[in-house]
Amino acid sequence: MLNFDTELNTNGLNCPLPILRAKKAIKTMEKEQVLRVTATDPGSLKDMEAFCKQTGNELIESENQANEYVFYIRKS
After folding, report:
1. Which ranges of 3-43 would DSSP assign to H, the alpha helix?
2. Which of 67, 75, 74 is nearest to 2 (CA)?
3. What whole-number distance in Å separates Cα of residue 41 and Cα of residue 76?
4. pTM to 2 decimal places
5. Which positions are annotated as active-site residues?
């Protein structure tokens, strides 16, 4: 588990809500801070990768933990 500054739980939400909530959360953060996002939507795997590429933020790590996906995103 990595260190993070803000945590966002999007469990139970389907696309596009996890991305929209992550976008809103990351806007409130300082540069270089890390956002930890949890999601249960399997589509979030591809969505978070695409979100990071589009926004220039860094997807540090993604994990699958018992049907829960965990993403660590560093704000650029």
Report:
1. 17-27
2. 74
3. 25
4. 0.94
5. 15
Angle, helices 44-55 vs 17-27, to 10°: value is: 40
What does the block give as tokens for 70?
């965990």
Which amino acid is present at 18?
Answer: P
3-class SS at 38? strand
Strands of the 34-39 sheet, one edge to the other: 6-9, 34-39, 68-74, 58-65
**Alpha helices in the chain, H assignment, sequence order:** 17-27, 44-55
Overall fold of domain 6-74: Translation Initiation Factor IF3 (3.30.110)
25-71 residue pLDDT tens: 999 999 999 999 999 999 999 999 999 999 999 999 999 988 899 99
Token couple for 69:
């996906």
For 58, the token pair is 């860094």
